[in-house]
Design a protein that fits this description.
Mean pLDDT: 79
Number of strands: 8
Order of helices and strands: HHHHHEHEHHEHEEEHEEH
Oligomer: single chain
CATH topology of the largest domain: Aminopeptidase
CATH architecture of the largest domain: 3-Layer(aba) Sandwich
Structural class: alpha/beta
Low-confidence stretches: 40-46, 49-69, 84-108
Shape: elongated
Strand content: 5-15%
Strand order of the largest sheet: 2-1-3-8-6-7
Largest sheet: 6 strands, mixed
Radius of gyration: 26 Å
Number of helices: 11
Length: 314
């Protein structure tokens, strides 16, 4: 009996030693990996990373999505992980015939007619998982989302790719001169693309989440607000355009818009480059507390509204 007891005791000690060695080995591996990872210098630009996301996601896509999602929705779902992107079109019934027109006939433009830019290019939305991967939810990303939706409708648009901060630094200007910087890019874009005839400066507001968000049929949207400067003589066409688009948004859902803000007070820019062309507008889509999904919902609806507007212009 005494021998058996000693034998069992030795087995227990051996098992305990093995367990301790295993814990030490795992801890050492984790520590070495962490040190190696922290000191590993990987440079990967946003485009390369997005390409990786899309290529990786496409190997895991659902076959049903190929038929049920538009190209833009497919991209957003499998690159940004945005599942709840339905904007109410066609889930929300429109009072105007935007959807039926889009399905029956499409405007096709080989040359770009819409220029989207951001005078305040670094304005950001609410942080989410994408920030961890250096994908910033900014108005610049929102501009690309709008471009994609317009392209789905046959409206060719371009987004200003140049960095506003670089223009400011080159000229020795402060942040307050952002509109001067974007004016340079605006004029150059028109020279490079004479076909452009509609110019959108996309911003986001700094208001509270309650003021910039609306729920329509259980989906959250970032509210739109138009800003028109009155400190130049020919502001009337800009104001008329903003009022027109605002009324079209109200026909979709009156709660989606915060209206048209007219600025001529001291301290305000008061022009916003809208003297450049009668079809130049400034829109604020949501605010700093909105999620990119909510911005996405709004931009899809707004793209349809712009499509309706251009249909009427032909």
């Amino acid at each position: 009996m005494r021998v058996k007891f000693k034998s069992r005791k030795r087995v227990s000690r051996s098992f305990f030693k093995l367990f301790i060695l295993l814990i030490i080995a795992i801890s050492s591996f984790i520590l070495v990996f962490k040190i190696f990872y922290n000191n590993l210098d990987i440079e990967l630009d946003s485009n390369a990373y997005l390409n990786y996301l899309v290529n990786d996601a496409y190997s895991k896509f659902s076959l049903s999505d190929l038929t049920s999602l538009s190209s833009t929705e497919f991209l957003l779902k499998y690159s940004f992980g945005i599942e709840k992107f339905n904007s109410g079109t066609p889930d929300v019934e429109l009072t105007s015939p935007v959807v039926s027109e889009v399905e029956d006939t499409k405007v096709t433009n080989e040359e770009p007619i819409i220029y989207i830019f951001n005078s305040h290019q670094t304005e950001s939305y609410r942080a989410d998982f994408a920030d961890e991967f250096n994908i910033n939810n900014t108005v610049y990303l929102a501009s690309h989302i709008l471009k994609e939706y317009l392209g789905d409708l046959g409206l060719s648009a371009i987004v200003e790719e140049n960095n506003i901060v670089d223009v400011l630094n080159t000229n020795g200007w402060k942040y307050g001169s952002s509109y001067k910087a974007s004016r340079i890019l605006l004029e150059q874009a028109k020279k490079d693309h004479p076909s452009l005839r509609f110019f959108i400066d996309l911003h986001r507001d700094a208001a509270s989440y309650e003021r910039t968000t609306v729920t329509i049929d259980d989906k959250k949207y970032a509210k739109i607000m138009f800003v028109i400067g009155l400190k130049h003589e020919n502001y009337a066409p800009n104001l008329a355009l903003a009022n027109d688009l605002n009324e079209r948004i109200k026909s979709f859902n009156a709660d989606l818009t915060r209206g048209v803000m007219q600025k001529d007070n001291a301290g305000a820019n008061g022009i916003y480059n809208q003297d450049f062309d009668p079809n130049t507008i400034l829109i604020e889509v949501g605010g700093q507390y909105n999620y990119i999904e909510e911005v996405n919902n709004t931009l899809k609806a707004f793209a349809n509204i712009l499509y309706e507007y251009f249909q009427g212009e032909q």
